[in-house]
Every structure is written in structure tokens, then in C-alpha cells.
Specification:
The chain contains 4 helices and 5 strands. With about 140 residues, it is α+β, with helices and mostly antiparallel strands. The chain has one domain: Double Stranded RNA Binding Domain (2-Layer Sandwich), CATH 3.30.160.20.
């Protein structure tokens, strides 16, 4: 059972994992042992509330396929159990982030003084460049 919040939890049967060989350096262990984990979670077929499902499917996250399946590959640790726990933790964090409502952006403008300072700096810089090009003989 994976607990997302006080009201939302997922049964173990809702996600599947497959052990695969990890990538990268690691010597004999990485060549012989399938310690990496591919965790797959189908958003549409899950028991998540509709709000979670809609927000997850609307995300542009590379871990979410076009078919609405979250695929997480965990290969940080040498043991399969540690990688499985890492994958579950990352899945829970992804679902929790979809559960929080995004903060509404409040549009802002630069103040009148900030705009004036910016224009003064541009004018001063332009004058300096103008002085460089005039009146200096080139030998």
C-alpha cells in the first residue's frame, strides 16, 4: 500500500515493476544482476481521484507516456529492494505534486523609477561607446 495523502492511497496491485540490468559502470555485478527497476503505473486505470488524473495527464513530463502510463526507472542503488523503494518514493512524490494546486501567477510591472534607471544606463552606455569611436587616431 502506497500512501499519497490522508485520503489517497494506492494498492500494490495498481503498479507493476520489472527488474532489468542497470546501465553504466559497475564491474561484474552490473553485468550479472538485474538490480534496476522499471516501475509502471497506469493513470487511467488507477483508483486516483479524477483531479489527480487530470493534472497528471496534463503535465508535460517525460516520465508520462502518451498512453497515460508513468514509467520510472530506478537504478541508483546496488540492491533491487532499495531501487524498488526509491521508485515508489519517486512515484509518490510525482503524484503528491499533482495533488497540490498551482499558485496563481500575479502579473507584475517594473516601477517607474526602475524603468527610468534602465533608460539612463542605456543612454550612458551609448554615450561611452560613441566617445570610443570618435577622435582616437589609429596607428
Amino acid at each position: 500500500m502506497l500512501h499519497i495523502s490522508d485520503t489517497v492511497s494506492l494498492a500494490d496491485s495498481e503498479f507493476s515493476w520489472h527488474a532489468v540490468r542497470a546501465q553504466g559502470a559497475g564491474g561484474q555485478n552490473v553485468n550479472k544482476v538485474a538490480s534496476a527497476i522499471h516501475l509502471r503505473f497506469d493513470i487511467q486505470a488507477s483508483s486516483l481521484p479524477d483531479v489527480y488524473k487530470q493534472r497528471l495527464l496534463a503535465r508535460s513530463d517525460q516520465r508520462i507516456t502518451l498512453g497515460g502510463v508513468i514509467v520510472i526507472k530506478a537504478q541508483q542503488f546496488r540492491s533491487q529492494d532499495a531501487n524498488r523503494e526509491d521508485a515508489l518514493t519517486r512515484l509518490a512524490a510525482l503524484i503528491r505534486s499533482a495533488g497540490s494546486t498551482p499558485k496563481k501567477r500575479k502579473p507584475t510591472r517594473p516601477s517607474r523609477n526602475a524603468r527610468r534607471k534602465r533608460m539612463d544606463k542605456k543612454t550612458q552606455r551609448g554615450r561611452l561607446k560613441g566617445l570610443r569611436s570618435k577622435g582616437i587616431p589609429k596607428d
